[in-house]
């Protein structure tokens, strides 16, 4: 029992430590030569995700004194050039509180102001000064190899490509219910349309019948006018002398 209690306590500590870690998000190339946010503070044990949303960019580490020039070796951080929107994100784990100055090593993006910092000092070196110094650098260099981070699914939310799918999936429920509502309304409309259609058919039938009766009556009148009735048969059967007496004098 004591061993079980000890294991549970250790698991609780690990769980608490894991829940205390924060995952920060930086959007790369969202509408221009930008990191958003370009400056953030992260604690030891936290991680920073770089979401490549558009363009052709990278994340490369440099020192404050040498912007647009990579740090190679064990301290290198380089995502490699990425075309956005990308499904996976580049995640950097924060192992100490040292500042991480970084830039885009693509073309002249660094000189054009695409720079950022994690854990900038509270005084002295600032992001504005780093950006200003980068503008005067003649060559934008990339690290010799990638490293310092990992590529994989996002933990803070989807990157642009996955995010679109997530958004569609989220909106799928309202769309589905909307379709259901439309279907129900359509069924009701269809149901109500049925008696209306029957009533229309009945009305047309009655009108047709009345039209037929009217046509027959008109034909009968026309026939009478074209062919007036002959004298009664009784008059034809009268004796000749009586008919002559009744005839007008000539």
UniProtKB/TrEMBL annotation:
<feature type="region of interest" description="Disordered">
    <location>
        <begin position="141"/>
        <end position="196"/>
    </location>
</feature>
<feature type="compositionally biased region" description="Low complexity">
    <location>
        <begin position="152"/>
        <end position="196"/>
    </location>
</feature>
<dbReference type="InterPro" id="IPR052953">
    <property type="entry name" value="Ser-rich/MCO-related"/>
</dbReference>
<protein>
    <submittedName>
        <fullName>Cupredoxin</fullName>
    </submittedName>
</protein>
<dbReference type="InterPro" id="IPR008972">
    <property type="entry name" value="Cupredoxin"/>
</dbReference>
<keyword id="KW-0732">Signal</keyword>
<feature type="signal peptide">
    <location>
        <begin position="1"/>
        <end position="20"/>
    </location>
</feature>
């Amino acid at each position: 029992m004591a061993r079980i209690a000890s294991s549970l306590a250790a698991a609780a500590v690990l769980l608490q430590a894991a829940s205390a870690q924060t995952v920060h998000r930086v959007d790369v190339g969202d509408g221009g030569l930008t990191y958003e946010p370009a400056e953030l503070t992260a604690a030891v044990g936290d991680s920073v995700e770089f979401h490549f949303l558009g363009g052709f960019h990278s994340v490369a580490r440099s020192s404050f004194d040498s912007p647009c020039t990579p740090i190679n070796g064990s301290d290198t951080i380089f995502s490699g050039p990425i075309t956005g929107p990308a499904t996976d994100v580049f995640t950097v784990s924060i192992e100490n509180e040292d500042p991480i100055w970084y830039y885009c090593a693509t073309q002249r993006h660094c000189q054009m102001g695409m720079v950022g910092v994690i854990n900038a000092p509270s005084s002295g070196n600032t992001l504005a000064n780093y950006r200003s110094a980068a503008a005067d650098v003649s060559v934008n260099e990339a690290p010799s190899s990638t490293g310092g981070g990992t590529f994989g699914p996002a933990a803070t939310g989807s990157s642009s490509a996955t995010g679109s799918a997530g958004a569609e999936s989220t909106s799928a429920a309202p769309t589905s219910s909307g379709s259901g509502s439309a279907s129900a309304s359509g069924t009701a409309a269809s149901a109500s349309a049925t008696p209306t259609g029957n009533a229309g058919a009945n009305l047309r039938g009655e009108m047709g019948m009345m039209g037929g009766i009217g046509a027959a009556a008109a034909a009968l009148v026309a026939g009478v006018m074209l062919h007036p009735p002959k004298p009664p048969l009784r008059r034809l059967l009268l004796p000749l002398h009586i008919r002559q007496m009744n005839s007008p004098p000539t």
